[in-house]
Amino acid sequence: MKRELLLLLGCTFAGICSAEQLTIERIFSDPALSGTSPRELEYSPDGSRVTFLKGRADDYDRYDLWEYNIADGKSRVLVNSDSLHKGEEVLSDEEKARRERQRIYGSGIMEYTWSDDGKSLLFPLAGDVYYYDLNKKAARRLTETEAFETDVRVSPTGRYVSFIRDQDIFIVDLKTGKERQLTRGGEGPIKNGMAEFVAQEEMDRMTGYWWSPDDRHIAYLQVDESPVDEVTRSEIYADRIDMIQQRYPAAGRPNVRIKLGVLDVASGETRWVDLGKDKDIYIARVDWARDNLLTYQWQDRSQQKLELRSFNLDSGRTNVLLTETSKTWVNLHDDLHFLDDSDRFIWSSERDGYRHLYLYDLNGKLLQQLTKGNWTVDELAAVDEKTGKIYFTGRKDTPLERHLYSVALNDGQRVQKISRRAGMHDIEFANDASGYIDKFSNVSTPTQVSLHEASGDRVTWLEENAVVKGHPLYPYKADWITPEFGSIDAPQGHKLYYRMYKPANFDANKRYPVMVFLYGGPHAQLVTNGWDKEFNQYMAQQGYIVFTLDNRGSAHRGTEFENPIFKRMGEPEVEDQVAGVKFLRSLPYVDGDNIGVYGHSYGGYMALMSMFKAGDYFKAGVSGAPVTDWSLYDTHYTERYMGNPNRDGKAYEASSVFPYVDGLGGALLIYHGMADDNVLFTNTTKLIKELQDKGLQFELMTYPGKKHSLRGKQTRIHQYTMIKDFFDRHLRQQH
Question: What residue intervals traverse the membrane (predicted)?
Answer without folding.
Answer: none
